């Protein structure tokens, strides 16, 4: 067996055993110094390499997780999203395992010379950042398309950048640790060599031969390992230490080669994946743009369908003030004729003689004009509300009386269904909390929500009326409540109810239980949910028992 393949301890024993023959004191000193050198080597092997491997795997897995999350965000169908979701879970499990392994390693070396408070703090920070990133990842899985991309670029991107920065610092600390250990090894070697040189008069040939052997088979490999570690820290994973010996330093070198080979392979795979992902991203962005155009057209179609449902109700509502305007206008014409006739009949008399009759006619004319103005404003308000409801853009939030808004759209929805079903009658129960007052909303947007929910409620009770006959009394309940900083609007009915399987999908786009040809787009409840939750930071929920009716509850910030 070659000398270089012997264990470091055996090499030390052979070399300093020969020197002991000549000078016992020098031998004792040299053994102590070589023991320190061996400890420095073991420090490198024990305190740095394993942590470096674990931290490197953490870095690679974190980057891979980030890549899979981008793939999940840009996936075009549920099957792809599930595949990427499974990959994310696998990587998360591996990161958890790596974090636990690193925690165990630092617990073993906390009392060692190569462990610092900064490394412990970095470990704690990384664990906290990972928990925070995992929390965001849980919310991210439920997002789609641009929301998911924006979420990755936004909050999750910031956390990931901080996480990566901490990992890089951890690698730098490990590099500093090995440099420090190598420095101590070199210092020990220099001290030993200098002391031996003092006694060259006695042991020149033997000491030089032993020192040369130790330099060749201990210090040089350590320095090579230090230089290789610096290159790895700079991002060069192609470093290879050659054919090391079979001693402790050789084991360390072989472990180092396995680590760099693994990192190099994973880096190449990551580059290939990133190139493929970039190409797929461009294709997916084009598809996403087309889908958004289609979605905008469907949303407009749903709004126009909602506007069509309003037409009959608005026509009935506007007919009443127009009738008042026509009637009072006709009365005003008759009063004007009467005033002219009265003045003609009393042309020769002084004004005071007919002033009483004229004033009475003028008072009637004033009364009629006020009524015409009042009902004209009512008709104007109905038309203005219709125009606001028909706008395709987003309106401005303003304080709006909740109870009045609910009443207004209940009347419009009722007259709308009456226009299509003249024989339909329903009992509308109102249970309003007067303390609700005004809430800051976009009136036309919230009106769309109320109109959709009320139209659905009227449709449900009408369908049950058709099946149950005269024994059934259609009833729709409208309730408002305030408390705990929120306002609740509940619209319930005693219709057939909603099965549990349907409730789970009822807010999904294009999902509908209405028959084909009913003018329904399947976007009503989906858009209502989006308006309440995203447009007004509220909640929209459904409570139903099959056969007993359903209740939709809107919760808004007060």
Shape estimate: rod-shaped
Strand content: 5-15%
- Total domain modules: 2
β-strand number? 7
Gap between N and C termini: 85 Å
Number of helices in the DSSP assignment: 13
What is the helix/strand order?
HHHHHHHHHEHEEHEEHHEE
The residue-averaged pLDDT reads 75
Radius of gyration: 42 Å
Outline the low-pLDDT stretches. Answer: 516-522
- Share of helical residues: over 70%
Instruction: Provide the spatial order of strands within the biggest beta sheet.
Output: 2-4-5-7-6
Largest sheet: 5 strands, mixed
- Structural class designation: alpha+beta
List the helices and strands and how they pair.
Blueprint: H1 8-22, H2 24-73, H3 78-109, H4 117-140, H5 145-153, H6 155-198, H7 200-233, H8 248-345, H9 351-390, E1 398-401, H10 402-420, E2 427-431, E3 438-441, H11 443-468, E4 475-483, E5 486-493, H12 500-503, H13 524-535, E6 539-545, E7 549-557
């Amino acid at each position: 067996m070659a000398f270089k393949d012997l264990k470091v301890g055996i090499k030390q024993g052979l070399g300093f055993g020969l020197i002991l023959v000549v000078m016992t004191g020098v031998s004792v000193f040299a053994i102590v110094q070589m023991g320190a050198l061996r400890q420095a080597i073991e420090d490198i092997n024990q305190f740095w390499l394993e942590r470096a491997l674990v931290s490197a795997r953490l870095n690679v897995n974190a980057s891979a997780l980030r890549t899979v999350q981008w793939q999940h965000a840009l996936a075009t169908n549920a099957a792809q999203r599930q595949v990427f979701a499974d990959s994310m879970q696998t990587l998360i499990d591996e990161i958890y395992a790596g974090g636990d392994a690193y925690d165990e390693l630092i617990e073993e070396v906390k009392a060692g010379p190569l462990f610092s408070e900064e490394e412990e703090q970095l470990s704690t920070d990384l664990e906290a950042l990972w928990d925070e990133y995992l929390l965001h990842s849980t919310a991210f899985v439920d997002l789609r398309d641009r929301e998911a991309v924006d979420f990755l670029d936004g909050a999750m991107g910031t956390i990931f950048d901080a996480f990566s920065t901490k990992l890089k610092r951890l690698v730098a600390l490990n590099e500093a640790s090995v440099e420090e250990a190598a420095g101590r090894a070199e210092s020990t070697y220099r001290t030993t060599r200098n002391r031996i040189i003092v006694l060259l008069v006695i042991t020149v040939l033997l000491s030089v031969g032993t020192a040369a052997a130790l330099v060749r088979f201990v210090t040089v490999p350590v320095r090579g390992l230090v230089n290789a570690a610096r290159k790895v820290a700079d991002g060069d994973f192609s470093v290879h230490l050659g054919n090391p010996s079979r001693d402790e330093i050789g084991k360390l070198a072989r472990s180092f080669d396995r680590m760099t080979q693994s990192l190099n392979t994973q880096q190449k795979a990551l580059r290939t994946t990133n190139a493929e992902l970039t190409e797929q991203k461009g294709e997916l962005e084009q598809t996403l743009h087309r889908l958004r155009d289609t979605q905008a057209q469907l949303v407009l179609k749903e709004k126009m369908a909602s506007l069509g449902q309003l037409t009959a109700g608005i026509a009935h509502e506007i007919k009443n003030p127009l009738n008042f305007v026509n009637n009072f206008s006709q009365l005003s014409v008759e009063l004007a004729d009467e005033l002219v006739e009265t003045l003609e009949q009393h042309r020769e008399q002084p004004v005071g003689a007919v002033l009483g009759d004229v004033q009475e006619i003028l008072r009637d004319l004033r009364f009629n004009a006020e009524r015409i103005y009042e009902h004209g404003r009512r008709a104007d308000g109905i038309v203005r509300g219709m125009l606001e409801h028909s706008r395709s853009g987003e309106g401005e939030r303003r304080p709006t009386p909740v109870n009045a808004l609910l009443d207004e759209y209940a009347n419009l929805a009722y007259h709308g269904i009456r226009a299509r079903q003249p024989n339909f009658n329903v009992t509308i129960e109102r249970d309003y909390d007067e303390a609700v007052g005004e809430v800051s909303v976009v009136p036309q947007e919230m009106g769309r929500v109320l109109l959709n929910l009320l139209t659905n409620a009227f449709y449900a009770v009408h369908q049950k009326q058709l099946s149950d006959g005269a024994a059934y009394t259609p009833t729709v309940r409208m309730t408002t409540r305030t408390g705990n900083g929120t306002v609740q609007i509940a619209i319930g009915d005693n219709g057939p109810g909603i099965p549990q399987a349907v409730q789970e999908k009822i807010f999904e786009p294009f999902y509908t239980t209405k028959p084909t040809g009913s003018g329904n787009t399947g976007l009503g409840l989906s858009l209502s949910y989006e308006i309440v939750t995203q447009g007004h930071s509220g909640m929209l929920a459904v409570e139903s028992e099959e056969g007993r009716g359903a209740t939709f509850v809107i919760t808004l910030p007060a």
